[in-house]
Amino acid sequence: MGAEGLHPRVAVIAIIPDNEGRVVAGQRISPLGSGKWSFPGGHLDQGEDFAACAERETMEETGLRIRALEVVAVTNDVFVDAGKHYISIFMRCERTDAQQQPQRLEPNKCEGWYWKSWEDIRALAGNNKNTGDLFLPVANLVQNYP
Prior knowledge:
Layout: E1 9-15, E2 23-28, E3 37-38, E4 41-43, H1 50-62, E5 66-79, E6 84-95, E7 110-116, H2 118-125, H3 136-144
Parallel strand pairs: 1-6
Antiparallel strand pairs: 1-4, 2-3, 2-7, 5-6
């Protein structure tokens, strides 16, 4: 296959738990996945490592200071209707200040940030092959890494 045409992009998504095992999740407003629930994250910049991307994107979106610890999952996410294709790298992270709470710093991209249990996240996936109320990468995470 040649090098011409569209290529998948890389997204890094932060899984940030609290002391109760809940994770930071927000409902997207962005055109891609509007209304769907996701975790903080975004595009990997040229030359950036996964941990730095997770930390930067989380700070930009939520104001949380985190430490990215390890890659825990990779999903292959094809947005057929939007003509987009992403490889999503999920990073397990921890807050550097366990008392700090997420803030809505990009109101044009996210409705707000909340603490959700994994049961809440699985429930948002729905019971069919559709993504339910989850952003495609998170739906694929739930489906492929139960």
